[in-house]
Amino acid sequence: MSGSDVQRTAPETAALAGRSFSAGRALRHAAKVLPEHARAHNRSLVLQTLFHQGAMSRADLSRETGLTRVTISDLVAELIDDGYVAERGLREVTGPGKPAILVDLDREGHRIVGLDLSGTDRFLGAVLTLDGEIVARLDVDVPADPADILAVVIDLARRLVADAHAPVLGIGVGSPGIVDDRGVVLTAPNLGWHDVDLEGVLRAELGLPVLVANDANAAVLAEYTFGGAADDVLLVRVGRGVGSGLLAGGQPMRGSRFAAGEIGHVTVGTDGGPRCVCGKIGCLESWLSVPALEARLAEPDADRDAVLRDAGARLGIALAPIVGVLDLSEIVLSGIPELLDGPLATATVETLRTRTLAEFHDGVQVRMTAQGEDIVLRGAAVMVLSGQLGVS
């Protein structure tokens, strides 16, 4: 491998940076790749290129990545041996010359197991391809006794691994609550969890790579990789609680205490409001969570549009300083479309426009995700792709 191969490749991958989000679309990095890390970086760069652009020849890969043909030939041979890349036959040609052999990511050669533990009454699980397509599903009821939850999660993961019918690249988990960079759930009140080493427990039980993150942080990765989100995007996930996942410059922001995006307990009711489960008055979650919305809509003589617009305005109040500070271009909503899309989203946009600098922020887009309830499962797949292959 030549020194020029190191100099001409820019993004540093997850293989170099531990659990951090890997090289994706226009990711920004300040440091050059160190020579001792170059092979892992270049290997990831090849996989990333094939993941997004599909089958191509070795010569195409050389042009796209800036790596020499000798380096590409060596890396492709290694990746074929490892089962991550496969030859796909000859390229069709009409002119003279020998047709090139196409190579591509072996998208059917491995499976990923994803778990979504954020539901109010069900835990969702799926077996996914490397493209994020779901090929098998399982769901289980959330146990009434918090002491039973961990055993149920382990059993769900084990059943999905058994149903994969291909080598499992890893297990990704989206959990409610605050999750640190080692996959420890520091607190998840809705599950009764405190300092639960979910990643370590699952790895020990199943003998596979495991990555655990907050469910909203997983969801925003799915929106970025599979949903076409911008590099600067905030995804607001509304369910039993309210949380958000944030990418800035294509990189996730988790915060020094792993609590970035916890907007549910920002006070948006300075005029009073309902008491939140945390004990404060007027938290966003007490206006916007699904149980809160459903309770208000069930009140006698409730005006549906007025209730939803009020919740949307509260969301806009919480989001305006975030948009102003980070200059975000896009807000994505994830949850029940019948509640979030329509009057609620419209009121959010209107409030943002009145509370931010019009010249710069009038164009902020607020939209629903198109990925439905699968968004956390697909985000869990991105976590595994990033952590194991450096692909996002």
UniProtKB/TrEMBL annotation:
Query: How is this protein named in the record?
Result: ROK family transcriptional regulator
Q: List the top taxonomic levels of the source.
A: Bacteria, Bacillati, Actinomycetota, Actinomycetes, Micrococcales
Q: Which residues form a coiled coil?
A: none
Q: Which family does it belong to?
A: Belongs to the ROK (NagC/XylR) family.
Q: In which domain of life is the source organism classified? A: Bacteria
- The protein's organism comes out as Microbacterium hominis
